[in-house]
Amino acid sequence: RGRFPQKDLESLFPGMSADFTSENFSAAWYLIENHSTTSFDQLKTAVVNLKKQANKKNEGSLAYVKGGLSTFFEAQDALSAIHQKLEADGTEKVEGSMTQKLENVLNRASNTADTLFQEVLGRKDKADSTRNALNVLQRFKFLFNLPLNIERNIQKGDYDVVINDYEKAKSLFGKTEVQVFKKYYAEVETRIEALRELLLDKLLETPSTLHDQKRYIRYLSDLHAPGDPAWQCIGAQHQWILQLMHNCKESYVKEQKGKHAFLFPMLDLDSDVRPSPIGHLSQTASLKRGSSFQSGRDDAWRYKAPQQVVFVEKLTKLVVSQLPNFWKLWVSYVNGSLFSETAEKSGQMERSKKNARQRQNDFKKMIQEVMHSLVKLIRGALLPFSLREGELRQYGGWEMKSELSGQWLTHVIQTVRLSSESLTALEIPNDMLQIIQDLILDLRVRCIIVTLQHTAEDIKRLAEKEDWVVDNEGLTSLPSQFEQCIIHSLQSLKTVLDCKPGEASVFQQQKTQEDVCQLSIGIMQGFIDCLEQLSTKPDGDIDTSHLSVDVSSPDLFGSIHEESSLSSEQRLLIALSNCRYLERHTFLNIAEHFEKHGFQGVDKITQVSMESLKELDQRLFEMYIEFKADPIVGSLEPGIYAGYFDWKDCLIPTGVRNYLKEALVNIIAVHAEVFTISKDLVPRVMSRVVEAVSEELSRLMQCVSSFSKNGALQ
User: Fold this and answer.
1) What role is this protein assigned (predicted)?
2) For position 549, what pLDDT does the model report?
């Protein structure tokens, strides 16, 4: 219309404006496609020529018909005459229609043919029917054989084949209206439903590996199982872990109550039970530590483990072996890796991710419940006083004949620490594991308290180990044994006092500081009491061990090791010598060790201990002075007035009287005794003895009213 004027187009295609038919449209489109560059006049000329050719063709056909028209009429007349003749002859010679006889003959022939070939034709129809049925069976044998194939593949465990066949059948016959197909497809659905139930049972069956769980979840997803099988599996695993933990506790409690003298597995406490970080973290694929707690055993040092220790180790191994798969199952559930590509295409994975986001709080509660159960079961076995009465009935039940030693508590702490490291390696949020850190802190505090209590008991028994063998400094082995006992105790607490990543200091609480300070003071006071007991108990209670003196020590008056036993005065001197060494060396060394290990209130411990030691030293010193000075002082007055001596009436003096000689000899004997044990004590002791004798002499002289010439000279 844009190229040619309207009137020109109408001249080419009459009636175009009124009724533009498909033929006109086709002709117009032909012109546009093939003659877009031809001028309108040329096209008009071509149309005229085409019309002329069409008219010539019509005129040729019409001329042909006109030329043979007489022949057609003659043939028509002949046929009509024949028909009339036949009609007339038939009516006269044959009753009824002339074809009646022919019809009867044909019917008899047909009946005869039916009689002859009915059986053959029947077999042919049956063969055709059978052939058609076989064709149908052959064509759709996949569907007809599918129920049996599903059963066989299920028995063989070829679930992938079953799922693929089911998907194929569903796409082909899921919406069929053919009754036979519907019937067989219903059989397929029945078996698939049974397979869903079977897979769900296998999925919820425990124990089960993470690989199998993922596989069954993927199968159920591909089979479009109702509900959320993955979440059902997570819930079943959660309950199973809790049940395992409680069963573990019940079995060990029954075993403890059933056997009074049970031989526990051998565990070495002196070996390093911690595996190397690389070796430990390399196991995070399954995080089953196996015997990682008992690596590197030294056969020379083995102890029989208490039932609670064995239980805690078994419980932590159980949790660390099961929880990783549980956590990984959740992670796979969240990121959708549980599902196959089919699930991704169908959008099921997105639905799963959405469900996982909605259930994050529920899963967090599951993890927290497992952590709470783990912690409370350990508390019930080791720290029952930290549980409420209701919790104690559920998580306790142990026979607590005696509390665990510090060594075993240290071993338990290392065990729990390893468990915490393993769980942290799973990237479980720290807030879920905080309860384990709280447990470790309480165990560390309890270990320190128990170790110090046992140390105090050991210190009290040091009196039994006193051999009274004196070295050249006047000391026995007791101060050294005391210092070594405390150092060993603090060294055993080193791993407990050291803070691992994420742990708090054991001394962060004021109550813990005060308790540890009081126990430390009690240890020091216990040793002071031990010294007092040794130095003051009766002779009959003293060990008959002989006192020996170092050969290098000067012995002016003979060594006292020849004596059969120690006198009370000698024990006092040895105790005084030990006290002097404790004040100047031992207590200061112990204070340094306390500070080195991070103890709080060391100044208070040292101050109180020093004051108590000085009080003991002063009491023992006064006792010794009383033992040695009083007899000398008491012999002066009787010696002076022996033989009714009178200062007013006495003979001319010929020398010092015997009482004074005896006093000097006794003082020299005291000097010798003190010097033999500890020459450092000589000035302190001798000054007091001489002072006491001098004071008594002064008093006695002041009591004399008058002297004669000889008396004054005497």
Assistant:
1) Component of the exocyst complex involved in the docking of exocytic vesicles with fusion sites on the plasma membrane.
2) 41
